[in-house]
Every structure is written in C-alpha cells, then in structure tokens.
Design brief:
Blueprint: E1 5-6, E2 12-13, E3 22-24, H1 27-32, H2 37-50, E4 52-56, H3 61-81, E5 95-98, H4 110-113, H5 116-125, E6 131-140, E7 164-170, E8 182-184, E9 197-198, H6 212-221, E10 225-226, E11 234-238, E12 242-244, E13 254-262, E14 273-276, H7 280-283, E15 288-289, E16 291-294, H8 296-302, E17 347-348
Parallel strand pairs: 3-4, 6-15, 9-17, 14-16
Antiparallel strand pairs: 1-2, 4-11, 5-6, 6-13, 7-11, 7-13, 8-10, 8-12
The structure holds 2-oxoglutaric acid.
C-alpha cells in the first residue's frame, strides 16, 4: 500500500493504490471450490474501486508452466513470420496477439479456461448469466523498446457500467523489466468517450487511445504504474480501465492468456470469436458464450494469424457500438450509452 500522509489535525490519509490489490485463495476456499463471503465482498469492492483485481492461488502452477513452455515456442514461430505492423497489436512492434493452445487436450486446463473462482466473481460484478466472448493472449516481445499509447480496449462508446471483463493469466513473473502492463487504476469509473481520441469530428465511434490531455489530468489524481505480479496470478480487468502494453527489455517473451466475459445484456456480436470445436465442452461448462465453434483443423489454420489487414485472420468479436449504422441489426439501434459526445466536443487526432 502507498505511504500514509497526514491530514490537518494529524489524521492519517492513505492515497489509493497504483498497484493491483490481491486476494489469495485460502486452503478452505480451494477445497470447497467456493469463495468465502468475506473474500467475495473484497473482490467486488476492489473491482469497483480499481477496475483491476489480482487473484493468486487459483491456478495450478504446473498448468502455468506447461502453457508457458508451449506458448513460448509458438511465440518464437510467430516472430519469424512477422512482416507488417498490422500484425502487431495497435500497430506498435512491441506486442502481438496469440491464441492459447485450445485444440490441445493436454493443455486445455479447466482452472485456466473455465475458472470457477473467476466466474463466481464475475457473476456478481457483471451480473448473472455472463457470456464467454473473448479468447486471446498477449506477447510482449523480448528486447523491445516501444510502448503503446494509454488506451481502453474499447474502440466504441462503451456503457458506463461494468459490461466486459478480461481475465489474464501471467505465464511468468511480470515486472516492469519484462514489459508488465501499465494500468491506470480507477480510470474505469470516470471514463467516457470525451476522453477518447476520435479520427474526425463526424466519426461514429472513437478509437481506443485516451486523449493525451485526459492522461495528464488523470496523472495528477491517480497515475498509471506498471504492475508487479508473480507467475500464476490472474488479473481481472474491467475493459474500461486505461492501460498500455510496455517494452520488454529482457531476452524472454512475456506472455499472458486472456479469457473475456460479457454481461448477459451485452448485445450479440455480428461476428463471434472463433474457437475449436474440441474445446466447446470445457468453454461452455460454467457459462453461456458468444463464440463460434469451428472444426479444429479450420481453427488451427487461423489461430495464430492476427493480421488486422487480412480478411482471413482470426478476429476479435465485433461490437454493436462499433458497427456502421447500416450493419446494426434491427432492434439494436437503441445502442446509446449515457456518454453522448457532441461533434464539437470530440478530441480529434488524425491517423
Ligand atoms: O500485453 C500487455 O501487457 C497489454 C497489451 C495491450 O494492452 C494491448 O495490446 O492492447
């Protein structure tokens, strides 16, 4: 926790943290497969306050090691094939998206891809009936020196309440040296389209980036910081929370898996994220989903192709608020979050 400072009259005042707050599962919770009431309350309080929660002890470390070995070998293969900036995330050659080995039954771990503790927290934070809608992984490449802009994973006008949560499993110790993510805790609460960058005054939707002046204002209140979390930590991130991928100055790729969930009321995407058929039983075991299960051979052919410029590549799910009006299905035109941004209020930056 940050140091306490003194208020007038000698009362201590502890500033809000800039590092994630942890909950460590107790042996009793693990044996019961169920949170204690007190830890559930703590988890929900942390998520509402910070937009980020770290859980330790929820995943078997042998599973983490096995995934790290497999995915590090895959990241090396991917690196050999990268030619264009469109193959990196956000066009910065520091970080790319990958898929976890979901078609390999030996690596399809229930505590990673359908974790009962994670799901129980999200059924309270997002509300009952959550849907698994996102399966990715992030690789912060070894020996890199560029950072991403501060952004939200929301190139759309997002609802002003918890609506999507991404859950990341750290496959190694994450430190500022190896490119641990920079998080701006608490930014999920005060954030609207007014803080996002728009490419023109008449653009229908903003892009992910947070406007630089909004970043500087937020720095005065609660600055961003690169997190330090041990291997095997699961972080739950409200998708509105500002963050950035950072350079990795070590010789080892830094990888985390990602499983994302949507609130039950979140609209059906026009195109769902694809997943291998052999993983359907596991991925639908505890929650509903917004995935399209396809034969494993078809999935394997595209699973590591994240080129934004390619039609054939695997794609993130599209979002109703991101579609051109002509493509919004009937009945969904009422997509209108509270944070309407008038054209003249938009922070505009060209490409
Ligand atoms: O890998 C990370 O640390 C985060 C990367 C990120 O935010 C992104 O690529 O959008």
């Amino acid at each position: 926790m940050p140091d306490a400072t003194m208020l007038a009259g000698g009362r201590p005042f502890t500033p809000l943290p800039t590092q994630p707050s942890f909950i460590t599962l107790s042996p009793e919770e693990k044996a019961a497969g169920k949170w204690s009431r007190a830890n559930m309350q703590r988890a929900i309080e942390i998520l509402h306050r910070d937009g980020l929660l770290a859980i330790s002890g929820a995943v078997d470390l042998e599973h983490v090691k096995a995934l790290q070995e497999s995915m590090t070998a895959t990241s090396k293969q991917i690196k050999g094939s990268l030619k264009h900036l469109s193959q990196y995330n956000h066009g910065i050659d520091t970080n790319f998206l990958m898929s976890a080995p979901l078609a390999d039954p030996a690596l399809r771990f229930e505590d990673v891809f359908s974790n009962e503790f994670v799901i129980a927290v999200l059924e309270n934070y997002l509300g009952p009936g959550i849907k698994l809608n996102l399966l990715t992984a992030n690789c912060a490449l070894a020996n890199t020196n560029k950072r991403q802009n501060v952004h939200k994973d929301a190139p759309w006008l997002h609802p002003n309440c918890p609506y999507l949560v991404n859950t990341n499993l750290a496959l190694s110790d994450f430190t500022p040296e190896n490119g641990s993510t920079e998080f701006w805790l608490g930014s999920h609460v005060c954030s609207t389209g007014h803080e996002q960058v728009w490419l023109s005054h008449n653009a229908e939707t903003p892009i992910c980036d947070v406007a630089p002046d909004a970043v500087e204002e937020r720095r005065k209140v609660r600055p961003g910081a690169q997190i330090t979390v041990p291997m095997g930590t699961i972080t739950l991130r409200d998708m509105r929370t500002w963050h950035a991928g950072m350079p990795n100055s070590t010789n080892e790729d830094r990888i985390m898996t990602a499983v994302g969930y949507a609130a039950s009321w979140y609209p059906e995407p026009e195109s769902r994220m694809k997943a291998p058929l052999s993983a359907e039983e596991l991925l639908t075991k505890r929650t509903d989903h917004q995935l399209e299960f396809i034969p494993d051979e078809e999935w394997l052919a595209i699973a590591q192709d994240w080129d934004l410029a390619s039609e054939a590549s695997i794609k993130l799910p599209d979002v109703v608020g991101h579609r051109k009006s002509s493509k919004v299905p009937a009945g969904e035109r009422e997509w209108a979050p509270l944070n309407h941004v008038a054209d003249e209020e938009k922070f505009v930056r060209g490409k």
